[in-house]
What we know:
Blueprint: E1 2-12, E2 20-21, E3 27-31, E4 34-40, E5 46-52, E6 55-62, E7 65-67, E8 71-73, E9 77-91, E10 101-114, E11 121-129, E12 132-139, E13 147-153, E14 156-158, E15 164-167, E16 180-183, E17 209-211, E18 214-217, E19 223-229, E20 237-242, E21 247-252, E22 261-264, E23 267-268, E24 271-277, H1 280-285, H2 288-291, E25 307-312, H3 314-317, H4 348-360, E26 365-368, H5 375-380, H6 398-407, E27 411-417, H7 422-438, E28 443-447, H8 462-477, E29 481-484, E30 500-503, H9 511-514, H10 522-525, H11 561-570, E31 575-577, H12 582-586, H13 589-597, E32 602-611, E33 615-622, E34 628-634, E35 639-644, E36 654-661, E37 674-681, E38 686-691, E39 696-703, H14 706-711
Amino acid sequence: MISKVYLLIAVISLFNQFIYAGESKPVVITLSDIRLTFKLNKNGSPQYTVDFKNQPVIKPSLLGFHINDSTHLDKNFQIIKMDSSMVDVTWKPVWGEVSQIRNHYKQFTVHLIQNAKPSFLINIIFRVFEDGVGFRYEFPLQPHLTYFIVNDELTQFNLTGDHKTFWIPGDYDSNEYEYTTSRLSKVDNSKIKLISFGTRERSEPDKYAVQTPLMMKTDAGLYINIHEAALVNYPSMQLHVNKSAHSLTSDLVPDAIGNKAYLRTPAKTPWRTIIVSDKATDILASKMILNLNEPSTIKNTSWIKPMKYIGVWWELQTGLRSWTYSNHLDSLSEDGELVPHGHHGANTANVKRYIDFASKNDIPGLLVEGWNTGWEEWIFNWNGGHYDFVTPYPDFDVKAIESYAKKKDVQMIMHNETAADASTYDIQMDTAFQFMNKYGYKAVKTGYVGNIIPRGEHHDGQWMINHYIRSIEKASDHHIMIDIHEPVRPTGLSRTYPNFMACEAARGNEWHAFSTGNAVDHETILPFTRLMGGPMDYTPGIFKLRNYAKDHPERQMHSTLAKQLALYVTMYSPLQMAADLPENYEAHMDAFQFIKDVAVDWDDTKIVEAEPGDYITIARKEKGKNNWFVGTITDENSRTSTIPLSFLDAGKKYIAVIYGDGDNANWKNNPEAYKIEKYIVTNSSALKLKLAEGGGAAVSIMPATADQIKQLKVYP
């Protein structure tokens, strides 16, 4: 590790005397183009501003809390002391988009005491990076504040205007919404149908609340992203929109009785993050959220291995087969026993078929859903407690599948769907992970579809935040990698827990199977929103783009086949699924070659071009090799993407295989039209790729052999 830590200013103290009382002089911290200003206003209220290249980004905004029903920690503060330091270190992630990350910031901590009886202490820590600002609150150990309840966090983000905003509703239990693009003043989710689980009543969130990461663009061309980092022992932060004032206020997810958090001093909140640039590409390149998380807690990480996988999954989503072993309504024998109806997907023969395909095509992993008993009860019973995570259906031979997969060198991936019964999963976690260890499962996909049990808790509330972390830690104890579905959106915790490989926490590709699907521009927005906090298990790679859903011939992917390939590069994840059925890949093995070749772990990443809601082009270098992969996608508009290959080594020749949209391709009318071209390229080449409406292109670039140099044309 390369490490440089400079202490700028030692603790400033006047022997416990207040250095400021009431309104204070502004303190200014600047790094590169970012400037943070902090002060206490005339009411003794803490406030901050953020500027970029001398342009205001966040106008004077207040900070504080309401706690214990009647205590207001938002005014009458005095400054006890201030600390400041600078850090410049480089660290190496276990896996990621780059092989090393620079963590460069100036830190400013203000220690406050409230001029009241009793007096309360609170610290506010600011970190100023070259691409933004992070800040958090600390509650020191103190005699008058030990255990307390957070009623509201009062953090403000006062904006400079009515910005263009990419948003989804502030739902306490789901992130799986299509994005709305509008002015901030037009945010109103009261007309958006909230995602419902069953028939139970659910909490109605603030109709003017939106979820983070929130992406905005100003009329002056600034890009602003607001999120949080290191979400631990605290509810997730949504943002309430004050439309007339163009202001955002933190809106924490409550528990069943309306409280937001339960804390014991010493305590600290997650970081509130503001990333800003005049280039959209800089937003995607930012590593600030990762840098605000703690280093890895796992000392030996040799067992953590990124990989691609296929799954007994898409055929379940599209209705071709079932998660359930029996048809609960009409397949009962005379003695009341459930009778197999022949549509159960997780049967031994079918699983072996997938193992054969994975082995033949060098796909390391296989996920199988619907293997364990309880799916019939889940569908018809919302009371929980019906999964035990170790009992397979009669037609799923655990031992035989383990042996067959091992012989074929395929790694089985466990599936633990909890049906949102987190309390039961807490009890059975040890048993579940011991079962995985026994049968050789190195990774698990967990799920939380439904209303959380215990009743009244929410997917994004403090109780569940702690549950997710318990599952990650328990998985680590058993050397299991984990992929969580239906969780809170990530906040960079994969740095602290590198076995936390990916999660869902957004509207994935699967929505094309059981609904009208995702908007054509969906994947051009997600990297600026959901993926800012961590990798997403988006499940790309669908090749049969129409007529795939049983009983719903009208459903289709809002994508071309070439765009599905490009998503393996633009939608980052160290776990990437080849989501379609083996037979659909076998019909297009020339295109499937890109899925076989593309890496999942990277030494370097170049954000070539990007505009939220319109297009994205990304190039990535495979870890440990001199292979590059490029993905470029567009929205509903066709466009030409120009990709300079200046990132290639000088003086070397490469073979570029371009998987592009066909000349007459179109996401709606001709989505499966594609063409594959091969050329010799160098670092002076610039690819010009025509993308169809809703289309894309994927490119593999590998060192060329002498024969290839002789046989192939040089790119024009």
